[in-house]
Amino acid sequence: MKKLALLVIAALVFGISTFAAAAEDYSSTINVFRDSPIPAEYFKTAYGYAVFPTIGKAGFVVGGSYGVGQVYRGGKATGKSSVIEGSIGFQAGGKAFSEIIFFKDKSAYDEFISGNFEFDATAQAIAVTVGAEVQGGTTGVSAGASAGPKSDVQANPKYFKGTITFVHSMGGLMYELSLGGQKFSYEAI
Q1: How many other C-beta atoms are found inside a 10 Å radius of the C-beta of residue 140?
Q2: Which residues contact 85 (CB under 8 A, 6 or more apart)?
Q3: Which residues pair with 124 in a beta bridge?
Q4: Burial class (CB in 10 A: 0-12, 13-18, 19+), 189
Q5: Which of 27, 48, 159, 161 is most buried, most CB within 10 Å of its CB?
Q6: Which long-range contacts (CB under 8 A, 24 or more apart) does 113-119 make?
Q7: What is the pTM of this model?
Q8: What is the pLDDT of residue 179?
Q9: Sequence spans of domains, the chain
């Protein structure tokens, strides 16, 4: 039964992400974050950023997520990235979201492109495109609520260890209180 559940979760996560990856439009996703008042400020001062147009996530006690993205420095793409996450805890459902990670300085950028594991603790509730999320860990601290891409309802978080992450809920239904680890890959272009 556990193996079947894991296979279903993996199929959902990779299915959502693979389908979405075929139609990735990085500029559209970047504009969603540029049009949001709080993340827009970070485009002016950040050394660089990584953007993931669609990350698919699914879980039932054990969960996983996957997405592909690009890394930028000085407004120009420097490489491709993927993120894979495993988590365990109270969680049920599936969702899709966009994510952007800003790097405060060269040191944070260099650490990201080295591909280190990042562990985090997450508590969130996301339903369709209305969502609330609080996240903290070595990837940064973020908090926000979204009623759509141009929502002004968002906390004003600060950099943590040189990074800050913003998430835009695209859809799904997932309840979660879990611990997990993220792994980012990087390939220069």
Answers
A1: 24
A2: 57, 63, 64, 65, 66, 180, 181, 182, 183
A3: 133, 176
A4: exposed
A5: 48
A6: 113/71, 113/78, 113/79, 113/186, 113/188, 114/186, 115/183, 115/184, 115/185, 115/186, 116/184, 117/181, 117/182, 117/183, 118/181, 118/182, 118/183, 118/184, 119/179, 119/180, 119/181, 119/182
A7: 0.75
A8: 80
A9: 2-188
